[in-house]
Amino acid sequence: MLSDKSAVGSWAQSTPLLSLKNSVTHVAVTSILVSLSASAYAQAQPQQTKHNKDIAKMPITQSAKMTAEQAGSLEQQKQIDQLIATAKQKNLATHPSWLRLHYFEPNGHTKSGSARYKSKITNPEFFLSPAGHTDPQAELEAFITATITQGIKGNDSVACRFPARTHWLKTQLGLENIQPDCPDFDNWLQALDPQRLSVVFAEEYPNRPVSAFGHTLMLIDSKASLADPKAIDKAHALNDTVAGNPDDSFLVYAAKSAAGGYPNDITIEPYPQKLAEYLKTDNRDVWTYELKLTDAEIQQIMRHVYETKDLELPYYFTLDNCASEILRYIDVVRPEGNLLDEFKLAVVPSDVVRLLKKQGLITDQSYFPADKTLAQAKRNNPQIELPKSSIDANNRLIPTQLTPADNNPLNGHKLQRVMIGAGAQDDTGYLSLAYRGGFNDLLDRPSGYPQNFHLEAGSIALRVYQDQEPHKGDHNRVELQELAILRGRSFNPINTARSGDSKLSSWGVNLQATQVKDGSQAKLATHDDPDASHLVGSFAYEKGISAAFGTPTAGSGKLPPQLCYAFGSGLAQVGKGLSHGYRVGAGVNLGCRYQLNSKARVVGELQMPYWYHGDLDSDNRRSHYWQPIVSLGAQYDLAKNQAIRLQGSYQLQDDIEGRDDIQLAYIKHF
Prior knowledge:
By secondary structure, the chain is α+β, with helices and mostly antiparallel strands. The chain has helices spanning 7-13, 26-44, 49-57, 60-89, 96-101, 136-150, 158-161, 163-173, 183-192, 223-227, 250-258, 271-282, 295-308, 322-333, 349-358, 371-380, and strands at 104-109, 115-119, 196-202, 215-221, 236-242, 262-270, 286-291, 314-315, 362-368, 417-425, 428-440, 454-466, 477-490, 506-516, 534-549, 562-574, 582-597, 600-612, 624-626, 629-639, 642-651, 660-669. The protein is globular. 35% of the residues are buried.
């Protein structure tokens, strides 16, 4: 440490450009500086001649002292100018590491063609220059200036407030031997003792909105936890999540998280506390992946965490979340790559894990079963001796010989999906094109996801119809079949270890725009086209029970492979094509999924909604009616990310034409 030296002296001794050492004695240097300084001062400001004479009348020691202070100020400015010149020569202001340390993003170009930047951080305390929010060069110059003038000791110094920036600039300017004296930071880092970083993945959990798509955090291992893998009380969890209101409903929580309505919350806490939350409270299986990082990269990541941990950035569910922050940490220390740039629409935990594996950044993996996974394993294999939890009362890991569940995200299909198909509605043929942002439905390949996982977001489907029958009118058209924001179901079978908790009842939600047929019309009673469908906004909520059947995998905590369910549902739809412009309904949905083998599945469902439009003044329309629909689907997996799907539906109401719909489609995940 340089506790007994000034910042100027420290930086000067580290490089020949800044050295004050020469062959003359200190007295000679002082005499020369006195003469030069007095002469320059007198020539620059002749109106202060009397003041100069007064200085000359002072004792030589006092005059030399003041002149030395002036010389020191000049030397500081010389150092600043030289460091800034070197930084400009190396283009450090636009170096990827400097930009990423400040959250800078491209923001167009100037008239001369040079790049503009803008930081995602708006807090002025994060910058030293008034223009630092949009000017990387101004921020770099202000940082160098502040470091020289303030010194490199004390918790409030720039060097101690921003240790990652200081360290990076030191290495770029050849000043590696400079060691800032920062008690608070040093104590913080010593307490964590970061020796290894790993990504922790907690499986998707629809019963908690913020974790519906899975969650990732960073495990910080110390020397003590590496020496004894069971001693997780010696490790810490670096977690970035949304600081949302837990009392908000699922839809409100999701909407605010997606729109930046909540701030993010970066915490560092004992690892057993966080792991127990997943394994015991949420009953979510956990996978950990050791990251291939050097010691220097680990230390720099932790420096950056220190200077950014108290920022309250807006939390965006899709792009600025727990998963994106892990990629950003790695990008900060690996400027030659850009992991975060791999994702344009959304950064999802499972996709991040797959990307890290693809980039060769994962060296090892471990599986930790949830408490109810262990309980299910005991049901499946009564003869097996298993603990009740993977963590004991002393916060130590308990190893098990349990066969891992098939929910490792490395084994899952890719997130996005496109589906190209051909089908017919009655005698009207069509071609279809559909896209889905994520994640998984009951027909999709289940590997890599929780069992019976059904959650879809951001899907759109188009149909191109062609009809050659003149009496049915012109049916050559392009039709938006659906635009789904969110739909999914959470299954917690009553005859498994996941039953017994009222919070884990089976339920579902659906928010979308979709084509429907208005069943209020009597068939051919008016000039209206009775088989016309209408695009409506639709919302549905389901709640009920589910049960699992069949023989689970031996030696595992998996549920039985077959699933049946019964839901009561409430529905509401609005659209110009509906009588009175709306309808509300209630009904029952019954269904089953059968796993034929590892590559094939079948799902059948009967929906029985009862609709009400309000009082209608037409004899040809009904205000309330049943409109049952039966559907059947089957999928065969050609490969991990390719499949063929056959699906069809039939509307049982007699007064509707165009009741049957069948389609064969090719699926590609990417």
